[in-house]
Automatic annotation (TrEMBL), chain A:
It is found in: Cell inner membrane. It is a peripheral membrane protein. The keyword Protease does not apply. The lineage of its organism: Bacteria, Pseudomonadati, Pseudomonadota, Alphaproteobacteria, Hyphomicrobiales. This is ABC transporter ATP-binding protein. Residues 10-260 form the ABC transporter domain.
TrEMBL record, chain B:
Keywords: Cell membrane, Membrane, Peptide transport, Protein transport, Transmembrane, Transmembrane helix, Transport. The chain crosses the membrane at residues 37-61, 98-125, 145-170, 213-240, 260-282. It comes from Reyranella soli. Belongs to the binding-protein-dependent transport system permease family. GO terms for cellular component: plasma membrane. This is Peptide ABC transporter permease. PROSITE patterns: ABC_TM1 (PS50928). It is a multi-pass membrane protein. It is found in: Cell membrane. Residues 100-286 form the ABC transmembrane type-1 domain. One of its GO terms (biological process) is peptide transport. The keyword Lipoprotein does not apply. Gene3D superfamilies: MetI-like.
């Protein structure tokens, strides 16, 4: 049996959270459309960067793929299997092949468990270690893989720094040899100097183990280094998806352009003279997204059509697609 | 690789932690938590006093001696005698048997009930939690005394009913505290990580939730021990506790202790001090236990 090359296919994924009101009789008064029609593919061995500001639904997308929250509609196909309607027991074998690395290096490790117990728990849950020796060997090799020493297995999480804790979290995610790892802002909580180390570790592991990542981040600078392709999200939608090189060289969507312009250039003269593009205003409410293009309220290049017609995702060739009226034929 | 080189430094300050056996644990208790160890020793002493009361007590707990009634502490009667001339030391020793057993077992039962209800209700949340908590509300809105009087008048007074009743009364109320702690613990990413790995619910509750709510669990237990010993005295006063002449500390305090407080203060002092000392000892021991069980507190004092 050949391994399918497309690890993940997401089609028109929607996650809406009901908003209830009323003291005695509670009824639904609306819904927060956290993810509202997101589609993308992830190929084996690649890294898809998922970028957007807080509240745009990038983490929710990650959680929905893991089936940790209910999907309102749409399809999630993991290694050819549509898992969008799977229940708990049918998800169990799937969970072996999908893992997550969390943002918070402090909250993501149980303070009462030793490192060996944290890293080895997935092995226990899925009955993968036949005896104590096999378990210890596996844990030691996992720690080695993420650059930790075997004697650290007997310690507790509070004895480690943020970067080391993140390595422990990565070792835990690797324990089951998953085909897909969803990294939910795995470096945002770390010092800048440590960020680079952890991003390098992710890349190194990908080369060695052929891993596939969905790398969620809120700024384009971090994902630039690690991603092969990048999807930019705004208010529950993907507005642009493109190979890394193209996206950074020539961003198409005005929102992507604004995000890129927000990355400071480490040269004061260039920084002072380059044209500023600042998006003003707040992200509109996900309960009542604006009609037409969702970005039109803040878009510097807004046109009349944007206020009424929702732009569809348009294939621009070369693996890139954008949802913007500026690029209509 | 720069990344790896930076992090693989073994820390030199690490000293070998002793094993996790019971003996090693007691060793750590005495070394790191002297006050807690003191409390532990007091608890053990009272337990021994209770268990070996038959050997230790100079007189029987119900040995009446009308000639020597209301005698102050002396060489013959170390803690004095009560209004019937019974030796207070003997009564307090036998009382340790009853009061400490009632205190520990009712508090233990209460803690188990609190933990079971609190953890499951708090972790599951949603409708189950809603319904469960309304039952707890209903239970707590009954006056304790009414429940006690009704049940005891049906099943009759005695040690068993007192333990079960007090355990349930305190346990159901205390479940709120555990539930509250669970509500915050279950939001941690490590719980989420276990769920997304496919860990079963019992596993998550046992390995992830319970160890992280141990602090309130232990505090709940230690405060309940004192409360139960005192509650038993209230029951004894109403004739609903362990029936006389069985000597419970609470019973001594609320019975002859109260009536003769001005004439013979030692009648109230002896059992009162016993309760105070045991409750204090359990509290400091509980605090030490809480700290020792928390890996983050190890090595600090």
């Amino acid at each position: 049996m050949s391994v399918p090359e497309t690890v993940l296919e997401v089609r028109d994924l929607k996650v809406h959270f009901p908003v209830m009101a009323g003291a005695l009789v509670r009824k639904q008064v609306g819904s927060v459309k956290a993810v509202d029609g997101v589609s993308f593919d992830v190929q084996r061995g690649e890294t898809l960067g998922l970028v957007g500001e807080s509240g745009c639904g990038k983490s929710t997308t990650g959680l929905a793929i893991l089936r940790m929250i209910d999907i309102t509609s749409g399809e999630v196909k993991f290694e050819g299997e549509d898992i969008s309607a799977y229940d708990r027991s049918r998800m169990r074998p799937i969970r072996r092949r999908m893992q997550m690395v969390y943002q918070d290096p402090f909250g993501s490790l149980n303070p009462r468990m030793k490192v060996s117990e944290i890293v080895g728990e997935p092995l226990e849950v899925h009955g993968l270690a036949s005896n104590r020796a096999a378990y210890d060997t596996r844990v030691a090799s996992l720690l080695d893989m993420v650059g930790l020493l075997p004697d650290m297995a007997d310690r507790y999480p509070h004895e480690f720094s943020g970067g080391q804790r993140q390595r422990i979290g990565i070792a835990r995610a690797l324990a089951l040899e998953p085909s897909l790892i969803i990294c939910d802002e795995p470096v945002s909580a770390l010092d800048v100097s440590i960020q680079a180390q952890v991003v390098n570790l992710f890349q190194e592991l990908q080369e060695r183990l052929g891993l596939t990542y969905i790398f969620i981040a809120h700024d384009l600078a971090v994902v630039r280094h690690i991603s092969h392709r990048i999807a930019v999200m705004y208010l529950g939608r993907i507005v642009e998806i493109a190979p890394r090189g193209e996206l950074y060289a020539k961003p198409l969507h005005p929102y992507t352009q604004a995000l890129l312009a927000a990355i400071p250039i480490p040269d004061p003269e260039v920084e002072a003279t380059r044209p500023q593009q600042i998006i003003i205003g707040e992200v509109p409410s996900a309960m009542r997204p604006p009609p037409g293009c969702r970005f039109h309220t803040r878009c510097p290049r807004v046109m009349d059509v944007c206020k009424s017609v929702d732009p569809p995702m348009r294939d621009m060739g070369g693996g890139r697609a954008v949802a913007c009226h500026l690029y209509e034929a | 690789m720069v990344a790896v080189a930076e992090t693989v430094r073994p820390s030199p300050r690490r000293r070998r932690l002793p094993g996790s056996g019971t003996l090693a644990f007691i060793g750590r208790l005495f070394r790191d938590k002297p006050l807690g160890a003191f409390g532990f020793v007091i608890c053990v002493l009272f337990l021994f006093a209770g268990i070996f009361a038959d050997v230790l007590a100079p007189y029987g707990y119900n040995q009446i001696n009308p000639i020597n009634r209301l005698k102050p502490p002396s060489e013959r009667f170390w803690l004095g005698t009560d209004n019937l001339g019974r030796d207070m030391l003997s009564r307090c020793l036998y009382g340790a048997q009853l009061s400490v057993i009632i205190g520990l077992s009712a508090a233990a039962l209460a803690t188990v009930v609190s933990v079971l209800i609190g953890i499951v209700s708090g972790y599951l949340g949603g409708k189950f939690d809603m319904i469960m908590q309304r039952f707890v509300d209903a239970w707590m809105s009954f006056p304790d005394l009414i429940i006690l009087i009704v049940v005891v008048s049906v099943v009759g007074p005695g040690m068993g009913p007192v333990i079960v009743l007090l355990g349930l009364l305190y346990g159901i109320g205390g479940s709120r505290i555990i539930r509250g702690a669970v509500l915050s613990v279950r939001e941690n990413a490590y719980v989420h990580a276990a769920q997304s790995t496919g860990a079963s619910m019992p596993r998550i509750l046992w390995r992830h939730i319970l160890p992280n709510v141990m602090a309130p669990v232990i505090v709940l237990f230690t405060t309940r021990v004192g409360a139960v010993i005192l509650a038993e005295s209230g029951l004894a006063f109403l004739g609903l506790g362990v029936p006389p002449p069985a000597p419970t500390w609470g019973g001594m305090l609320s019975g002859s202790g109260r009536s003769y407080m001005y004439m013979a203060p030692w009648l109230a002092l002896a059992p009162g001090l016993c309760i105070t000392i045991v409750v204090y000892a359990i509290n400091v021991f509980g605090d030490a236990l809480r700290d020792l069980l928390d890996p983050r507190m190890r090595g600090s004092r």
